[in-house]
Design brief:
By secondary structure, this protein is mainly alpha-helical. 72% of the residues lie in helices and 4% in strands. Strands 1-2 form a two-stranded antiparallel ribbon. It is globular and about 55 Å long. The termini are close together.
């Protein structure tokens, strides 16, 4: 098994050699490097814009699936996506750090509860965005996480890596 340092050096070598030569030498380790090669020039604002749009799309899809999540208008949906993106980037990491002992004790089962609480916080902040209750918020947060994962995989923002066993 390769260490993280070896993988990083191999990925750096992939940028230098190009995909074809790299795959001959290292196998598929370069696929991650090739995915992010185009994204390396994106600035922070553009990444946040993509994150905001994918969050809005996930909220829209989940709104269509669940009756317990409702928006008054498209503007409310976009504002809710913006506030949710900001909450997920600022408040949620601090809350995850504070609740780390609980998260470890529950083997990670506290994280969906935190996600639901963040969604309820956004529904309290944004007028016109309503959630039926806490458990509906947790269920909707799980659905939003799943839909966001699918969107990020489809757009290349997230990469699924598979390791090859040495021969």
């Amino acid at each position: 098994m390769r260490s993280a340092r070896e993988i990083r050096s191999q990925e750096a070598e992939c940028f230098k050699r190009g995909k074809t030569q790299c795959n001959e030498v290292y196998g598929n380790v370069c696929s991650r490097a090739d995915k992010f090669e185009d994204n390396s020039e994106m600035n922070g604002f553009l990444r946040f814009l993509v994150y905001w749009v994918s969050t809005a799309l996930a909220l829209w899809i989940v709104d269509g699936v669940f009756d317990s999540l409702q928006f008054d208008s498209v503007q409310t949906l976009l504002l809710s996506a913006l506030v949710l993106a900001l909450v997920n980037l600022t408040i949620k990491p601090v809350l995850l750090l504070v609740t780390l002992p609980l998260t470890i004790f529950t083997l990670g089962l506290a994280i969906p509860l935190i996600n639901g609480a963040m969604l309820l916080l956004v529904s309290e902040i944004v007028p016109g965005f309503t959630i039926a209750g806490f458990w509906s918020g947790v269920l909707c947060a799980l659905a939003i996480s799943f839909v966001s994962l699918l969107i990020n995989l489809a757009t290349g923002q997230s990469v699924v890596r598979a390791r090859r066993q040495p021969d």
